[in-house]
Amino acid sequence: MSKAPNSTAPQPVIDQLEYIGSPLAYARKTMKRIPELEKLPGAFDDLIHSLTFLTAYNGSGATFNSYRREIERLLQWCWLIQKVTLTDLGRQDIEAYIHFCQDPPKAWTGDRQAARFTGPEGERKASTIWRPFVSKADKIGRMSSTALSQKSLQSVFAVLSTYFNFLLQEDYLKVNPVALIRQKSKFLQRHAYQEPVRRLSNMQWDFILETTEQLAKEHPAEHERTLFVMNCLFGMYLRISELVADERSAPVMGDFQKDQDGNWWLRVVGKGNKARMVTVSDDMLKTLRRYRTHLGLPPLPYVGEQTPLVAKLRGRGPVTSTRQIRYMVQACFDRALDRMKSDGLEEEARELRVATVHWLRHTGISEDVKFRPKEHVREDAGHASMATTDRYIDTEMRERHASARHKKIKPEL
């Protein structure tokens, strides 16, 4: 008796961009590797068109990865669960797919991020531990929910709509099934209020920074780099993608530049391949001096210096994986969490358990808008509009709550 399709873990389909090459040749190889796909007429054409769409994003590894994740999930669901191809999809299918993503089967869910394929070019092997969905375990082993957040749902709809529009232009589809969902409101909530920015408390950041400084003191060979990275993420609001080398840029020490007034700046290539100049504070300059001294370099960079901004600990060259930065930061979070619990700060520790790397950027911006002109913060953060920066200003919420704090349930006569 054959197993139900949702009780079997699917094999990864789409490799990293540099290993794909020709969509046609790659699709043929994949069909041979996964025989059950050959039994589904149309799966081959689905894969060729999907690969053609994805390879157009060869200028941004982050965009490619996020689009690949959503498209591969949809293809796996179509082929293995519904036994249909993209040309068969309608509005109800997309709604069913969204419900599937909200509660994927256990066989489709892993407990950690894993690479789809391993090995050198020509010898790539499919991972046996990769899963389309990931549910992270907390410190005591409980698995968190895989249900998509509102932000993730918005991303799913946006990616799939762009994807289906491409397939329309290629005359592969006749309709965009996402566009037929008139009432996305049953999936996407509309808020009459501004969502609060997810950030660390000042106490949590103090514990994290003290923990990282202690690690740097005890194991400088490894954690002087960690301390530098943590300060970059907080002190200059950098995204982790802005610290690693990819197709867009390879951050180097020479990106720190001094102007004619003696002020230091960091040139950063951010979202949309846009370059910006970020102010470097006196404290950040001290951090830079400390890190460079540890590396055996002159205290400050020179014009055109090509030393990687964040170098590998083993081997040569820059860090190229955001995952490595993410693990580095998460390890500091976990150690700080343990220290807080041992000091009896259970509630603060509980909140830190759900923190992500991006919270460092949020926290740095939230603190700075309290005393810096928001226009300056916006330029440093690389926000596309002032409305984004305004989200970090919580003065109105404080005043609103203060005015209501002493309301009486039973008004005095």
From TrEMBL:
Subcellular location: Cytoplasm
CDD domains noted in UniProt: DNA_BRE_C
Keywords: Cell cycle, Cell division, Chromosome partition, Cytoplasm, DNA integration, DNA recombination, DNA-binding
Keyword NAD found: no
PROSITE patterns on file: CB, TYR_RECOMBINASE
BP-aspect Gene Ontology terms: cell division; chromosome segregation; DNA integration; DNA recombination
GO molecular function: DNA binding
GO-annotated cellular components: cytoplasm
Nuclease found in the keyword field: no
Domain named Core-binding (CB): residues: 38-168
Location of the Tyr recombinase domain: 195-406
Coiled coil (residue ranges): none
Protein name: Integrase
